[in-house]
Amino acid sequence: MSRIRSRGNQTTEMKAVSIFKRYGLRGWRRHADLPGKPDFIFADKKVAVFFDGCFWHGCPKCKLHPKSNEEYWSAKISGNRRRDRKVATQLRKKGWSVIRFWEHSLKDPEGVAKRVQRALESPRRPQPK
Ligand SMILES: [Zn+2]
């Protein structure tokens, strides 16, 4: 459930698409009608990919603290995180593999591509809860 925001003039979604293209990852599409509305799915392999905004989902690495209304924002962010976990469980029950990236991962395109590639190649098996 990432909110796609622009940074510079390229959105998170556009950056992800350009990584998929550059590394030859095929079969993705956007805006799937699934729990949590994954940013991308690879339907054939049942892999759902999310790019979580570092602020909105409380990234521990970037530690983007709200400058005002701290209580409001931290409640909102922990709500997002709770929902992220719930959505992942729902998807896994439906047989999907779930990959979540932090938005900052896009600075490492190769890392993103490799992780997606691995998920696409690994055989599907029941996921532990
Ligand atoms: Zn981050």
Record the SSE blueprint.
Blueprint lengths: L5 E2 L2 E2 H11 L5 E3 L9 E3 L4 E6 L17 H24 L3 E6 L6 H13 L8
Bound molecules: zinc ion (ZN).
Q: Helix amount, in percent?
A: 25-40%
User: What's the mean pLDDT score?
Assistant: 88
- Give the strand order of the largest sheet, numbering strands 1, 2, ... along the chain: 3-4-5-6
Q: Strand share of the residues?
A: 15-25%
Keywords:
single chain; 129 residues; alpha+beta; four-stranded mixed β-sheet; two-stranded antiparallel sheet; 3 helices; 37% helix; binds zinc ion
Short summary of the structure?
The protein has three helices and six strands, in the order ββαβββαβα. It has helices at residues 12-22, 70-93, 109-121; strands at residues 6-7, 10-11, 28-30, 40-42, 47-52, 97-102.
Describe it:
- It contains 3 helices and 6 strands.
- With 129 residues, it is α+β, with helices and mostly antiparallel strands.
- A hairpin with a 2-residue loop joins strand 1 (6-7) and strand 2 (10-11).
- The chain has helices spanning 12-22, 70-93, 109-121; strands at 6-7, 10-11, 28-30, 40-42, 47-52, 97-102.
- The mean pLDDT is 88.
- The structure holds zinc ion (ZN).
- Zinc ion binds at residues 54, 59, 61-62, 102, 104.
